């Protein structure tokens, strides 16, 4: 195994967990803003006021007696996703892609009954997946259908794009692709592929799985070196708008590109992980410091994005 010294990591500007927690999360994220991002339902409502689209909300289940209404409505839905409002790390999310007679087919291909889904809703309400184990609310959203240009690279799960926003500026981004190892989830710690994206163009820079460089997706076999995200500037502006919506100075913005709705916000994260640096092959610190040095900040999302694209772009 190859190792890199702490001195080398500092030289390339790698942001450590301690520094992230103390110098950026604690310093730039006010505690009063956390409930907005730790609750997916609240997130959907607040970002809508700033023109940021999210997957269509089909149902909110707050009480046990409302679960029976889910059974009635689910018969009319072709595909949907059940999520705990206060869940984290993808825990408790169940994605149904279609129906097969009286069975519901998950993204993995496994079939479950309506009774199983109702028990899952009950578990969500009991707080099984919530951040602090407290009672929760279940939300049911319309199924996201990824555009074919991106879907072909991911194994089963929907690919998403993580953008780190600092003081309203997009400073680093990556595409997350599901794999067999990650069980169809776009979670790098579980084995998903992370593809670093150039802020200036949306083109791929580097790719990793389990923090090791790769050039091909382990399941699809497709090359990851020539990826390019369409509507890239629009996605950066969407992510930047979340700064005004929440007031959080340091956060991760997760987006997907739906085949009919276009770019959609999946969720916000007030404590974004650091693996994005491995996917990009470079550290966050130099970019964060560039933003901190600004004497005259830009006051619109569009202006912040234009500055970041020209400042952090890797390609001419």
Helix segment count? Answer: 11
Number of strands: 13
Between the first and last Cα atoms, what is the distance in angstroms? 35 Å
Binned, the helix content reads 25-40%
Q: What is the SS-derived class?
A: alpha+beta
Shape: globular
Succession of helices and strands: HHHHEHEEEEHEHEEEEEHEEHHH
Approximate strand percentage? 15-25%
* Biggest β-sheet: strands ordered side by side in the sheet: 11-10-9-8-7-12-13
Q: What integer is the average pLDDT?
A: 92
Instruction: Flag low-confidence runs.
Output: none
Largest sheet: 7 strands, antiparallel
* Cα Rg: 19 Å
Structural key phrases:
alpha+beta, 316 residues, 23% strand, six-stranded antiparallel beta sheet, seven-stranded antiparallel beta sheet
Description:
This protein is α+β, with helices and mostly antiparallel strands and 316 residues long. 30% of the residues lie in helices and 23% in strands. It contains eleven helices and 13 strands. The strands form two sheets. Strands 11-10-9-8-7-12-13 form a seven-stranded antiparallel sheet. A six-stranded antiparallel sheet has the order 1-6-2-3-4-5, covered by helices on one side. A hairpin with a 4-residue loop joins β4 and β5. α5 (67-74) runs antiparallel to α6 and α8 packs across α11 (301-312). It is globular and about 55 Å long. The two termini are 35 Å apart. The mean pLDDT is 92.
